[in-house]
Amino acid sequence: MKTVSFEDLQKELKNRNINLSYQRLKILQYLTNSQIHPTVDQIFTDLHKDIPTLSKTTVYNTLKLLVQSDLAKVLTIEDNETRYDINIENHGHFKCESCGEIYDFTIDLDSIANKELKNFKINDKKVYFKGICPRCLN
Amino acid sequence: MKTVSFEDLQKELKNRNINLSYQRLKILQYLTNSQIHPTVDQIFTDLHKDIPTLSKTTVYNTLKLLVQSDLAKVLTIEDNETRYDINIENHGHFKCESCGEIYDFTIDLDSIANKELKNFKINDKKVYFKGICPRCLN
DNA sequence: TAATCATATTGTAATGATTACAACTCTGTA
DNA sequence: TACAGAGTTGTAATCATTACAATATGATTA
Question: Do A119 and B128 touch (CB under 8 A)?
Fold first, then answer.
């Protein structure tokens, strides 16, 4: 699975004339280091320990920026929790209905193109699975 | 694509000892007749014309019931709009980013099983595409 | 260095979807 | 008719997200 380095991200932001402020840096680090596809609340709560002045609005703003810049993606596996993912192509997401953990799995999104959609312009593909993970099956 | 008849649905509800009240009947009809994958608000607004006493809570309650009974599915293509779909297997959803319309397309969900997940118990698979539909491309 | 300007951050208030809950209604049965 | 259980309704509460105005920051130029 292709990984995105911090340097890549920094470069991308430069290209788009987006300043890498301290807060944005920390949020980017959080997204790349923790592979947990966090919710806004998780990001805010964890980072707030290091940055007591951090505002939740800043987290929202930064995530919106990253999504618009195509550096992050919104995951809507559940209707009541929006999660964020550093943008790595060609993978799907599995959510365990027991422990709530989210697993990445590789999938060739190109291979699930569809004849019916040959006249459609496809910009984004999402694949979400739900079930029970091996750990919880025991 | 497999279609679900009204009689099938009624039978399913009987099996589960769920009463088919007037409101529930209307909501079921709405879901089967209109193929628009409606939001709660669409269902409520449209049915409210016929049933002025209808409450939005009833719509929520009924949809929850249908989902729990596995007769309907929740669609979370966007993080800000929850939609509902009568449960038909083996199809994905395409949402046009221009007009907002949602298109079904057939897809063999079994074929996108994944070796990495061979020890996972998979209960549900969702495939969401986004882009521009042919009508809006012109 | 000081002044200026654009951008980023913050905190609070507003919005909107969903849920909780208590009162009321309906239907069937004894 | 009285009762019980289930379904519906409307209001209030909750929670995530957005809007917005005030403040802070940081770079640039004189």
Answer: no
The CATH number of the domain holding residue B25 is: 1.10.10.10
Per-residue pLDDT for B124 more than 50?
yes
- At B58 the three-state DSSP class reads helix
The answer to whether the CB atoms of B130 and A124 lie below 8 A apart is yes
Q: Alpha-carbon distance A65 to A28, whole Å?
A: 11
The tens digit of pLDDT for each residue in A87-136 reads 777 899 999 999 999 999 999 888 887 889 999 999 999 999 999 999 99
Q: Testing the interface with B: which of A78, A123, A127, A137 to mutate, by most B Cβ within 10 A?
A: A127
Within B 70-109, residues with CB less than 7 Å from strand D: 79-80
Rounded to 10 deg, the angle between the B56-68 and B22-33 helix axes is 70
Two structure tokens written together for B18: 């769920």
Number of domains present in the structure of chain B: 2
CA A45, A47, A49: angle at the middle one, nearest 5? 80
| Residue B52 covered by a domain | yes
**Does residue A69 sit in the same domain as residue A96?**
no
Count other Cβ atoms within 10 Å, centred on residue A85. 19
Task: Convert the pLDDT of each residue in B3-20 to its tens digit.
Answer: 566 677 777 777 777 888
Within a domain: A54: yes
Structural domain of B12: 6-74
Do A63 and A22 share a structural domain?
Answer: yes
Would residue B84 count as lying in a domain?
Answer: no
CA distances from A125 to A107, A113, B124 (A): 11, 10, 17
CATH of the domain at A104: 3.30.1490.190
